[in-house]
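Inputs:
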Amino acid sequence: MGDPLKLRLKELIIRTLKLEGVQAGDLRDDAPLFGSGLDLDSIDALELVVSLEKEYGIKIASSEESRQALASIDHLAEFIRTRAAKERVGS
Amino acid sequence: MSLSPENPPVAIDAADCRTGLGDAAATWRGLLADRCALTLLPVLGPDGGDAVPLALLAGRTMAETAPPNWLAHLDSLAAAIPSEPWGMPGFPVYVTSSNFGVGSLYAFHRSQDVSHLPHATPAAAVEVLRRRFGWGENVTIFSHACVSAHLGLIAAARALAHGTAERALVFSFDFISPFVAGGFHALKILNGGMPAPYADRPVGSIGLGDGAAFAVLRRGRGEFGLAAHSLHNEMQHFTANDPAGAGFAACLTPVLAAAAGRRVWIKGHGTGTLDSGRLEAEAFGRLQPKSPLVSWKGSLGHTLEAVRGGQTPGTTGSSGPCFGATVAIPAFANGAYDGVVLASNAFGGAHAACLLTHD
């Protein structure tokens, strides 16, 4: 059974970036989100970051952190889990 | 595009600026003392938000007033411009800005208050300035992000070199607004860190500052000359440079050729993203390994002061280690140099550089 967070992230990416004809199952967990077949650019990254911050109540601090988080679905899920855990501890 | 050295010489007759550290002389003295104008302020001004490095002119806030509160600062600068029939035939004015009055446009968008509109577009904002300062209709507007002022200088120098102007005025300004700061913050390249130009570190941040400047150019020789110029656009990507730094090299090469036989130091851009700072420092170090490279914002006014004063400020905000081997962190005496290369780069892969000479 798949990771529900990763599935939600794929759906958010498809919805936010209006990726026509792309299904969640088409996105591999370990494939690069940028520089791969999705043909995403830095404006897409900006839209994704804004959506992620709203959806998950997290803060992405810098473009370097954004680049690491958006490396793949695996990286993004790990980033959100780690960040959410830290913010729960801090709250 | 480059202006070759065989064209008639172009001299800088006058220049001054306003930055967070004061006028050109005060800015040079402040930089020499390693003062940084940036402080951590709310990114959206009165609306708050994360604290990011911003440098406002003394007494200015980011509140979107109508008329905008930056006009008074331009009045102060314009009062220092030598008197000529600016904007009349033979005396063109080149007004450059990255953002003109976009803050007023955003204020109108939010409030529907039409009193913001007279300053809300480049053409409208410049028309306000033209009437305010008594300029004629011979006014040209340039905007290309961080190379805007360079474009104005190059256009003025070309008009003089080609005989279509007797003297030319370049007038440049940018004032931070919540719209602009918020945009850079959304891209995460303006964040809670302080800028450290060319520093080899894992996370970078740009800083944004208010700034305004003018330069008066004429044909002929003078204390300072603009001897060569170069423009280049990589056409690579909207927000990314060629990963090998080819754009930096392509722009700088013709200016360095024109500087052959001179000893030059380089005032680079440096205050862009971590990646562009790295590419710039590495490319310039490869091309000109004996020329120290420094970065502080602004291209001309306090550079002239640095040459007159014999001391070049170091790269304020950085402490090393740095990308490239030529970055000068501390200030240095510049008496042994007879030229300065001024380089800048911008969103969209744009590059500009010019050679400032002093004999």
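Chain B has two domains: 2-219, 224-357. Flag for discussion at group meeting.
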